[in-house]
Design brief:
mainly alpha; Serine Threonine Protein Phosphatase 5, Tetratricopeptide repeat; 79% helix; elongated
């Protein structure tokens, strides 16, 4: 029994530790290969299967990406033409953003379709539908991910969720913070905080613009709104 356990542990070490395998193959004898033939064949078969599987998956994903990009062309055309219903649902011949997002959501183009779908629903005043797609959109893009957070803030604000909206605007401002977009989002955050009667947080948001983004066009408004929020905060 102990012998069998020792052998299993030896085989397991062989499979899990490449250095052990390399050492035995280099310094071992033909007898070692014969004794461990089944283990070696299993190991090499697993490696081969992994390589083939990775190759097939790569080809599949590449094909999916091409199909998604082709489908996006007409949908984006309708979006830019402000034909939002066709952009979302298609025109009977071409898929719309919803179908593209659902079918190709794991591709870059399919992921982008989620962003476009969210914006389209937001423009139509369908705020919960907009949130469903914008929340599902994920990117490391400098502009679009921050914009997606801000748009989620817009949707929440329209739904009366002022605190959630303010948090999302702050999230947008903090995402890869920069002098071009962060001041805009901070200003919106401040206004959302004021809407929620959270004047202290509003002052902090405005003050961040004034102190951190001194050359931003939003500074003048930030100073004005900060003074108002401070006055309201002191009256509480």
């Amino acid at each position: 029994m102990a012998k069998n356990i020792t052998k299993r542990e030896s085989d397991l070490e062989l499979l899990e530790n490449p250095e052990v395998l390399a050492d035995r193959l280099t310094h071992g004898s033909e007898d070692f290969v014969k004794k461990n033939k089944n283990v070696l064949l299993g190991l090499f078969a697993a490696v081969a299967a992994a390589i083939v599987g990775a190759f097939l998956f790569y080809n599949y994903r590449s094909g999916q990406e091409k199909d998604a990009q082709a489908a996006m062309y007409q949908a984006v055309y309708y979006f830019e033409a402000d034909s939002l219903s066709k952009a979302l649902k298609g025109d009977g011949q071409h898929d719309g953003l919803v179908a593209i997002a659902d079918e190709y959501g794991s591709t870059k183009a399919g992921n982008l379709a989620k962003f476009y779908a969210g914006v389209s629903y937001l423009k139509q005043g369908k705020y919960q539908e907009a949130l469903n797609y914008l929340e599902d959109y994920k990117s490391d893009d400098l502009i679009l991910q921050g914009r997606a957070y801000a748009l989620q803030g817009d949707a929440n604000l329209e739904l009366g969720k002022k605190a959630e909206a303010a948090e999302l605007y702050m999230k947008a401002a903090d995402y890869k913070a920069n002098e071009f977009f962060s001041p805009q989002y901070l200003l919106k955050a401040g206004l959302a905080y004021e809407e929620n009667n959270d004047y202290k947080s509003a002052v902090e948001a405005y003050n961040t613009i004034v102190e951190k983004y001194v050359n931003a066009p939003e500074v003048a408004d930030a100073k004005k709104y900060k003074a108002r929020a401070e006055l309201l905060a002191s009256g509480k």
